[in-house]
Request: fold
Amino acid sequence: MHYIEIVSNGIQQTLVIGFSAFAMGLVLAVPLVCLRRAPNRVVRLVSAGVIELIRAIPPLVWLFICYFAISEWIVLSSMQAAILGLGVITGAYLSEVYRGALNSVAVGQWEAAQSLGLPPATVYVRVILPQAFVAGIQPAFTYGISLLKDTSLAALIGATEITYWALRETRVTFDGLQLFAVAGAFYIGFSLILGWVGDFVDSKATKWVA
Amino acid sequence: MGDVFGPFDDYFVSFLPGLGYSAALAAASLVIGFPLGITFALLIDPKRHFLVKLPSRVVIECGRGASALVIVYFTYYGLPSLGVRVSGAAAAIGALAFATGAYTSVIFRAGIRAVDAGQGEAAASLGLSRAKALRLVILPQAIRIVTPALIGFSVIIFQYTSVAFAVAVPELLSRAYSAGAIAYDYGPPLYVAGTLYAIVGLAALWLMHDVERRVRRA
Reply:
């Protein structure tokens, strides 16, 4: 019980890093997906390259760059660096989620909306985006779960989240078996909760659009 | 090239052994992890007794639900409490192999399900035992179907070998970090390490798309 208390000291920071990075990614993915769908072929190719490059660099390397390398220009706390690094990666992943969701809307929906004489903005807001939103919910939650697990990497740049507390106490008591079992259980628990919330939101949204 | 990129080209050369170490960690994890994934996939077969299925499910969910770093630490700091001392590299390989087994069990399961039911029936009607039918007929086709997904997963494992930094394994990121600490300038070595990871990752993804096209054509 004592170990659960110690490791739970990190819950707040784990959740702050996870949710902030996800929020940053949700916003950052909007311009990325717009560039990715731009009429200009060169813009599309370059943005696709940037997205692939961001995803090809390991999350931990991003965190190190944000914490150790960027500090030459601007000094970030370990929590800020973790949010920035994970947020950039999340933006790249979610832009692909948005793209998949937009592509999943049947071409007939565009054509039907246009043939009704609706202005392009209305076609987007009233017809396409609601359907794309529903299609994107499950993949976005799936990514959110893997992001939550990646927040543990922030411990390696000194953020005081769940894994950090488990590691710190392990160095005192040498009882890594129990401490990291507790830390793992927290991540598994949060993953399960996120999975249920995702299913719930998905079923509600599907009813709302249909 | 000389000094064109300042310290950058020195780092490229001096990090190559680290890149090799990372690749070796990934290869070892996958070589152990893939058979483990097939085993898990067979253990959660719907036809099995729930006393087999349930614990297997729990083990798989632990591998998928806990983070890679936590599993590495659990192995490195946890096993000594059970009287087993492991090196950092062994802990990293063991942990990543376990994660590979857990994640790929789902991939293999999907592959086995994707093989037409008639294939199993045909094998049975030829008098093959269930084990032989699985080994000679079902699995080869299932593995062929999931090869692109396995390559994609291998790239992820290659990226996550970087968490071995946490248990003092001299892989690519550890070398970049040490070089940064010595020069008191972390930027250049980290950019070089990131580029090396990206080159390998993007090359593997390109291979994946190529294999995907071929599997689809076959």
